[in-house]
Amino acid sequence: MADWEKQRRGRNERLAAAAGYASGKVVLAKDVVPLLSAVVRTGDRVCLEGDNQKQADFLAEALASVDKTRIHDLHIVQSGVVLQAHIDLFDKGIARKLDFSYSGPQGHAIARALDAGKIELGAVHTYIELFARYFMDLTPNVALIAAVQADRAGNLYTGPNTEDTPTIVEATAFKSGIVVAQVNEIVDKLPRVDIPGGMIDFVIEADRPFYVEPLFTRDPLSVTEIQILMAMMALKGIYAPYGVRRLNHGIGFPTAAIELILPTYGEQLGLRGKVATHFALNPHPTLIPAIESGWVEQVHSFGSEVGMDEYMRRRSDIFFTGHDGTLRSNRLLCQTAGLYACDMFIGSTLQIDLAGNSSTFTSGRIAGFGGAPNMGSDARGRRHASQAWLTAGKEAVENPTSLTRGRKLVVQMIETFGEKMVPNFVEELDSVKMAAELKLDLAPVMIYGDDVSHIVTEEGIANLLMCHTADEREQAIRGVAGFTPVGLKRDRKAVEALRARGIIRRPEDLGIDPLSATRQLLAAHTIEDLATWSGGLYQPPAKFRNW
Amino acid sequence: MEHFEVRATLARRAPGNRQQAVVGVNASGNVEILVERTLSETETLVEVTTAITGYRALWQAVIEDFFSRCPTGGLRFAINDGGAKPDVVSLRLMQSAQQMGGGQ
Predict the structure, then answer these.
(1) DSSP string of A426-475, one letter each residue
(2) Within the 209-248 window of chain A, which residues sit less than 8 Å (CB to CB) from chain B?
(3) What pLDDT digit, counting tens, does each position of B52-82 carry?
(4) If both were cysteines, with which of A129, A230, A451, B11 could B73 make a disulfide (CB 3.0 to 4.6 Å apart)?
(5) pLDDT tens-digit profile of A24-49?
(6) Which residues 6+ apart lie within 8 Å of B9 measured at CB?
């Protein structure tokens, strides 16, 4: 007799094992380890909610404390491997296999654990790709998530940092999985319901609020003249001619510089209302001056940002907010907006090779990719037209016809040298060697060269769309690679020929005097200036308060 | 500490009459440049003092590129390097030459 309900029966057994620790759905913080020991089984796929911002840190530490002789060989499937507790799971042997997306601060620790054979790596995904696999072959058996508040029926208020939660819960709850939520507090009435209680099995009031990293706060004080020069080139050489209105900015300082010169240099160029009006973007504090100056019509966010809550509550024409007033973010939907409804992704990277492939995997560091591979890829399924999309598509072919599809602009901004004089342009990505050493099936590439449309460095802009051979592409890249070994090995004649065709454009070709790239152009010079621009609504976290 | 010079002898005269200028700051990741109009009109010289050794060829390339882009005849540049990247060095050199372009 076939058994078609093993999963549901398994779920019921786990719930029964856990019943002694719960009063209804409510579990006390002191019982968290026994609870997890009751609902998690050896070999389970577990999603410990955590991305580049919010973390179910209380539950992560609890899971890292279970008896590994009883629970081991877990398969961790989650956006971010960010906390020490995440690494502990592997070091202690509680977890073995890993499929993830972003690791930021634990990049070195993951590389070490892989090297030591403690982690069996599935793949490094982009967020939306990992989410997609939650519904195909990586459905979690147990999800351990974080919310701001719960009521006793298990309804959750995730507040401004909703982020990945709806997606994780959907995949787990509707496939007979178990969902445990840590919350900052249990209350009688929620401001709004972000996750219905019917999908939640247990709620635990943690001993502290869940951790949120202010990952998207860039201090204007640290923006350099070189980054301002690159920002000027991007605005005048890319935003303006393509008329880019819908876009995503990466996390780095060069794009923060762009945000900060919109109200100054952008205004001089007469671009307000013509470019940068709609964003798929985390709430970057450096966007405040542009918002306040009337540049931005709308922003949808992957997550929130520490200190921006009150500002967004009072700018509901710009941000997506609930009826309670606070931001509603959603990583899956915002990534979808980035894929299909943005005409441009512009962001930084750590390494670019001669074909334009870029990666954040550098020697000894597995940083993951986050959303960049998705944002920085052309959506082949896109069918609606826009000026930017059509213009880019026509440039990419030699004889455009009425059937020539458009394409997304994917712009990499990179200074030719990184920290400690390490060249950012290389003949071969570090990840190629790393993949060989770790026996990965595929060398990790953040953005493939054939998706990159432009590279912006302090030396100029290379338009890769207009390069029609591998050789042209290589010389276009060498031609903006400055004094790096890759740049010094350029064929000067070929580079000048590319410049004559407008494939390489120097600051002077764009009518930009490099000496005019001064910090005077920044609409805000400090974090305090950003708070002032916001009328006191932006409340910077302590680590950025230097006044 | 490393100390070396890069010279050119067929330079075009640097415009302006200013005798001396200082740009940048001697700080980490930055450079301070003192420029003086003390050489003959076809000569130019950059003197580099840096705590970071082993990049002489790179300095040479950056300075020669600067000579090819800016008329610097008559100018002597003294660079005090705090570990600046080549793009910052280029920018500061251009700024210093521009400063000399003005009057007294």
Answers:
(1) -SS-HHHHHHHHHT-SS---SB-GGG--EEEETTEEEESTT--SHHHHHH
(2) 224-226, 229
(3) 999 999 999 999 999 998 999 999 999 999 9
(4) B11
(5) 999 999 999 999 999 999 999 999 99
(6) B42, B43
pLDDT digits (tens, 9 = 90+) for A304-341: 999 999 999 999 999 999 999 999 999 999 999 999 99
Q: In what order do the strands lie in the sheet with B75-81?
A: B2-8, B44-50, B75-81, B31-37, B20-24
Structure tokens at A221: 């004080």
What is the distance of C-alpha A528 from the center of its chain? 26
The position carrying tokens 């793009």 is B87
The residue to which tokens 């953040």 are assigned: A446
Q: Of A188, A202, A207, A201, give the one whose Cα is nearest residue A149.
A: A188
- Selection from A149, A135, A161 nearest residue A200 by Cα: A149
Q: Do A226 and B87 touch (CB under 8 A)?
A: yes
Place of tokens 């972003």: A102
The C-alpha R_g of chain A, in whole angstroms, comes to: 24
Q: Could you give phi then psi for residue A523, rounded to 5 degrees? A: -65, -25
pTM listed for this prediction: 0.95
Tokens matching residue B63: 């300075």
Tokens of A240: 């303006």
ipTM: 0.90
pLDDT reported for residue A338? 98
Q: What share of chain B is helix, strand, coil (3-state, %, to 5)?
A: 30, 35, 40
Domains assigned to chain A: 28-212 (3.40.1080.10), 220-527 (3.40.1080.10)
Contacts of B62 in chain A (CB under 8 A): 483
CATH 3.30.565 fits B2-101, yes or no: no
B61/A458 touch (CB, cutoff 8 Å), yes or no? no
The Cα A237–Cα A231 span in angstroms is: 10
CA–CA gap between residue A439 and residue A325 (Å, rounded): 49
Distance from CA of B85 to the nearest CA of A (A): 6
Locate all alpha helices (DSSP H) within A296-427, ordered by sequence. 309-313, 331-340, 372-375, 387-395
CA distance A453 to A503: 11
Per DSSP bridges, beta strands B75-81 and B31-37 are antiparallel
**Environment class of residue A310 by beta-carbon count within 10 Å: exposed (0-12), middle (13-18) or buried (19+)?**
middle
Q: How far apart are CA B56 and CA B50, in angstroms?
A: 10
- Domain spans of chain B? 2-101
Chains A, B: CB contacts under 8 A, how many?
39
